Putative HTH-type transcriptional regulator yusO
Amino acid sequence: MERSIQQLIERYLSVSFLVNKRGAALMKCELDDVTHDQYYVLRHIYKRGVCTSTELADVFAVNKSAITAMTNRLVEKGMIERGRGEDDRRIIALSLTEKGRKWLEETEQNVYELVEAIMTKLSHEEIEQFIQTYEKLAMILQEMGESK
Amino acid sequence: MERSIQQLIERYLSVSFLVNKRGAALMKCELDDVTHDQYYVLRHIYKRGVCTSTELADVFAVNKSAITAMTNRLVEKGMIERGRGEDDRRIIALSLTEKGRKWLEETEQNVYELVEAIMTKLSHEEIEQFIQTYEKLAMILQEMGESK
DNA sequence: ATTAAATAGTTAAATAATTGAACTATTTAG
DNA sequence: CTAAATAGTTCAATTATTTAACTATTTAAT
């Protein structure tokens, strides 16, 4: 393997790990009762309107039983609710409760301010370029996941 | 908050979550018995030669007791060992066993190949720029974590 | 020099995330 | 119309994590 590539990989492994851990730790401060993963479940349902366990399991790249456990906790907390599908009765539609929607909208404000405080230390172009590359990586990973 | 910034934040939250989850899922395939977090503990000790619980807790941004639990498992697996410090007897130096060192060196090969397969779908300059920005973010997060 | 405060690490109890296998209920296809 | 596929749950086990209480050791203040 080429030496310069190897160094890039080494740097990537170290820095991605660091940023994820520290980023999650900072975000946790804004999320009172809700965990980091639960926050992303709520976000996804909010953006979709309704969604299914299977869809969440695909997005999160985990087993469906992990989603069952997480959604159980969110139902207990009164943040989401389950509704049977009309046409296909195997499907259970997950949606935010009023409480869940309100909580998310308020919390998004705080999270946005946190991320903004970090991002604005970089130039607009640098952020834009960074996110574009990140999105390319997301697509590459998606393809690799599907092909397996 | 400015609208374009808000969109960047939204994109960042979505994509960073996706890449982390899917990246971790892909990496797990290479790590047989060892978990994702344990792999990074081993990596950190390998790079440092020896290190302490407190140092790991700082790097991972978790409590020291979380580190105790993780290192216990790694000791059970025969990957690392604990050694009392000579000068300060409170300190316990963590180091890789021969087995741990060999396992890590072999596994790094596979992980590197995995990351390389992803990276080489982007241009060298794009990766370099991406990692540089990532490293800036890491520094910003570090400062924010310290000031709190 | 002795005591009080700080530091390094562990233990224990609780919660959360995750996997894998076995299971129920429903739908689709041969 | 039965067999296979799909959607979701349950259960048992493992891992990661937090918080509070604890032990052992070192540093600092009087």
Q: What stands out?
A: Residues 52-54, 64-65, 67-68, 72, 88-92 of chain B lie near DNA strand C (CB under 10 Å from a C1'). Helices of chain B lie at 3-28, 36-48, 53-60, 64-76, 98-119, 124-146. DSSP finds six helices and three strands in chain B.
